[in-house]
């Protein structure tokens, strides 16, 4: 079995690259604040001073971000004019407002009692009856389609693992949905 270490030159190069990668990862995790080189630090100095100037200008515009402890009377006057527009509930009261009482509609005296709603009707059978084949001496075969699937069956057969062919007529076929115990007569379609 070969593991790829047969060529010694490639093995040494791979080990060297692996060692450099490990050193870079360790340096990134344990010494994140150090700059990578002196050249990049001197190149970034003009950008840092511009950013510091923008931050100082921004600090003048937004006094809430500064740590200046002086009292700003103009900001206090702005907050004096604000009015509380609540829902009318007393916010200092510990009790919650009682829930509104729902009134049930009155039922007529002669009305039948309300029970659970009737179950939904079973889904319609999606098969289409395209026709039948009749050979002398054999049972009638019918052609049923669901989407692009075509099924051939006889009376008593189950098609598409769900639908049982109960009776084959001249213009319709009676099919039972075995899962829902639903019988449905499907007419012959022209097509």
Task: Give structural notes.
With 191 residues, the chain is α+β, with helices and mostly antiparallel strands. The chain folds into two domains: 8-82, no CATH class; 128-187, no CATH class. Helix content is 29%, strand content 19%. It has three helices and seven strands. It has helices spanning 8-30, 38-61, 73-80; strands spanning 128-133, 141-146, 149-153, 158-159, 163-168, 172-177, 182-187. Strand 1 and strand 2 (141-146) form a beta hairpin. The protein starts with 7 loop residues before the first helix and ends with a strand. The relative contact order is 0.07. The model is unreliable at 38-44 (pLDDT under 50).
Low-confidence stretches: 38-44
Helix percent reads 25-40%
Shape: flat
Main beta sheet, described?
Answer: 4 strands, antiparallel
Topology, number of strands: 7
What does the radius of gyration come to? 42 Å
Number of helices: 3
Distance between the termini: 65 Å
Class per helix and strand makeup: alpha+beta
Mean pLDDT: 77
Order of SSEs: HHHEEEEEEE
Q: What proportion of the residues form beta strands (DSSP E)?
A: 15-25%
Tell me the domain tally. 2
Strand order of the largest sheet: 4-5-6-7
């Amino acid at each position: 079995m070969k593991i790829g270490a047969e060529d010694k030159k490639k093995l040494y190069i791979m080990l060297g690259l692996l060692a450099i990668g490990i050193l870079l990862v360790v340096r990134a995790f344990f010494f994140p604040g150090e700059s990578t080189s002196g050249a990049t630090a001197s190149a970034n100095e003009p950008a840092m001073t511009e950013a510091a100037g923008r931050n100082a200008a921004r600090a003048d515009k937004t006094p809430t971000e500064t740590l200046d402890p002086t009292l700003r009377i103009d900001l206090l006057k702005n907050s004096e004019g604000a009015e509380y527009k609540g829902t009318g509930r007393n916010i200092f009261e510990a009790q919650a407002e009682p829930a509104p009482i729902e009134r049930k509609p009155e039922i007529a005296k002669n009305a039948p009692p309300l029970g659970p709603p009737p179950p939904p009707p079973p889904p319609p059978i999606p098969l289409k009856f395209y026709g039948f084949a009749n050979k002398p001496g054999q049972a009638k075969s019918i052609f049923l389609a669901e989407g692009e699937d075509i099924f051939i069956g006889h009376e008593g057969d189950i098609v598409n693992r769900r639908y049982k062919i109960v009776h084959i007529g001249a213009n319709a076929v009676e099919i039972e949905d075995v899962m829902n115990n639903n019988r449905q007569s499907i007419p012959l379609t022209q097509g």
